[in-house]
User: What shape does this take?
Amino acid sequence: MHKVTYNDQASQSAADKPRRGIYILPNLFTTAALFAGFYAIVQAMNDRFEYAAVAIFVAMVLDGLDGRIARLTNTQSDFGAEYDSLSDMVSFGAAPALVMYEWALQDLGKLGWVAAFIYCAGAALRLARFNTNIEVVDKRYFQGLPSPAAAALVAGMVWVGLDNGFEGNELRWYGAVLTIFAGLSMVSNVLFWSGKSINLRKSVPFIVLLALVLAFALISSYPPGILFGLFLAYAISGYVVAVSRWRKRRLHRQGASATDDDQADDDNPDAPLEGTSSDPGSKP
Assistant: This one.
């Protein structure tokens, strides 16, 4: 009779333990997004800014696919999440900052690279905060402008400027303002709609499909301007909603304060009215 030894038990335990591996499919899309970001940097160094801007938009599309593919194929992993964050830092942090700097901001001297660094640091802080708050935030909203949207905002301005025949130094001040705005928006507490509440498996009316077809047709008619306009509207929408909520809260507090005052008057009916006195000999 064979006696089971400690080594046999250890070997069997090691065999039963699932091996840690790397899922190819979602990480393949992440690698493609990383390559697109790196390609954008290289093209910016070679003064081919239109290719660089388009590459950032391609990276954004690939970044949106890797997570959905991982969820659909049940291939999520901690490695994939960390790899995706590092890829995002290159594609949506370093690449847009360097593209904008090479195209327009370098003519501003120190202010130019400071603006580019504010954007780059904002992207890094945005990704770090997202990874640490992923389990506690409302899934319907992003806290701060998402880094892909910020990158599309910066790359979109470069693309629109080139398509309309502008040189980078002609739009350097606009570029600096937009770059700083995008960087600070990423680390703000402003909430932006995430779109995660949309159920892609749920049936929708035919008009929704028709609207999507028209949207694609509209974008294809003038990609630089339409894409830049869409992401600019998205970036502003968070602030519009924040101001609207602030006004509602203010009106609610004022209404509550007025209600409390009326309640206090009702509780003290003997209190003199405004413009009168409790002294019978006094005049109103």
Q: What stands out?
A: The CA atoms of residues 25 and 70 lie 8 Å apart. The radius of gyration is 28 Å. Residues 13-19, 271-284 have pLDDT under 50 and may be disordered.
